[in-house]
Amino acid sequence: MDGYLMTAEQCGHYFERLKSEYSLFAPVVLKGKGSFTDTDSVRYQEVSTVEEIEFRQKSHFSAREVLLPITQTLFYFTEDHWLEPKTGNKKILLFLRSCDIHAIKRLDEIYLRNGSEDPYYKAVRERIRFCLIECTASFPNCFCVSMNTNQTTDYDLVLRSEGEYVYVGVNNKEFGCSSGQPVTFEPQFVTCNETALSVPESLPASVAAAGVWQEYSARCSGCGRCSFVCPTCTCFSMQDIFYKDNANAGERRRVWASCMVDGFTDMAGGHSCRKSQADRMRFRVMHKFHDYRKRFGYDMCVGCGRCDDICPEYISLAGCINKLNAYIEEVGK
Q: How many other C-beta atoms lie within 10 A of the C-beta of residue 297?
């Protein structure tokens, strides 16, 4: 990998060249936009300069909303015709930590290699390139080391901002730069977390009726925040929106949904598959750590810890898995 040391001015010129070919999306601090009074939110936004990028904090939401908008119009319709919205042709450079790069691999499995390709996802995914954001130390609640997502080689570029200087590592000649001082540069990755996970190698049938799930009926409020901040959740609902001036014209949208909220499993006749939060928690955990692995060979969760960060009831996914593993070991004795 080629490395360069740039001044702020040189990096500014480099970003200007990048912007001519790419839309740059990175975590940004949104002042006063947090969940509570006088708190900030770190979310993905389009940026123009390296100074806008937040390197020190973990983003509260993942880059999933760049590839899969929270609300996405699939097509417009009238009585006689339908029309897909125009999509841009400009490539996208995403600034991601290692776990989030692994998360996009999980999204690819669901939307591109799960029996059929999703054309809307594919149209955006083909334009995506990765710029790695380093993790030199673990954030609270992260367990990426346990999930083997703390390191990656799947990136085109890596940036390290240090005061007045910026280190740039180029892993793809498409991003070659002519300015800056050539240096030896290797990205840094976190090697340990405060939170450790013991993921069961297999889940026996008795797990479905295990008492470990029952506490979540009392603790979980069903707000769905864990799913909405998760970089690998893929569920959505469909909505047809009819315009007021013509009841036969409108648009079809897909909107993020969650298996943890009321109504997700509702069916005709008023039936619902999973009414209790215990059942919903069991389904979510089994999907992340069992069903997905059976299909694709590895776990869906990447250990970013956002679900633990956001939960208003202080429910820990890592704690749940460790309890589940302890139950399995006890049953096996």
A: 8
How far is residue 77's CA from residue 91's CA, in Å, rounded to a whole number?
28
Amino acid at 216: Y
pLDDT digits (tens, 9 = 90+) for 135-192: 989 999 999 999 999 999 999 999 999 888 999 999 999 898 878 898 988 999 999 9
Q: Is 122 helix (H, G, I), strand (E, B) or coil?
A: helix
Q: Which two tokens stand for residue 59?
A: 């983003």
In angstroms, the CA 114 to CA 108 distance is 9
What Rg value do the Cα atoms of the chain yield, rounded?
22
Q: What is the residue whose two structure tokens read 């009074």?
A: 37
Cα gap 4→179, rounded to integer Å = 8
The structure tokens 């125009």 sit at 86
Question: Which neighbouring-strand residues pair with 28?
Answer: 43
pLDDT at residue 296 in the model: 95
The pTM for the full model equals 0.94
Structurally, the chain folds into a number of domains equal to: 1
Q: What is the pLDDT of residue 203?
A: 78
- Look at the chain and count its residues: 333
* C-beta of residue 249 within 8 angstroms of C-beta of residue 242: yes
DSSP run (H or E) holding 322: helix 317-331
Which domain does 102 fall in, by range? Answer: 2-331
Residue 38 carries which side chain, given as an amino acid letter? D
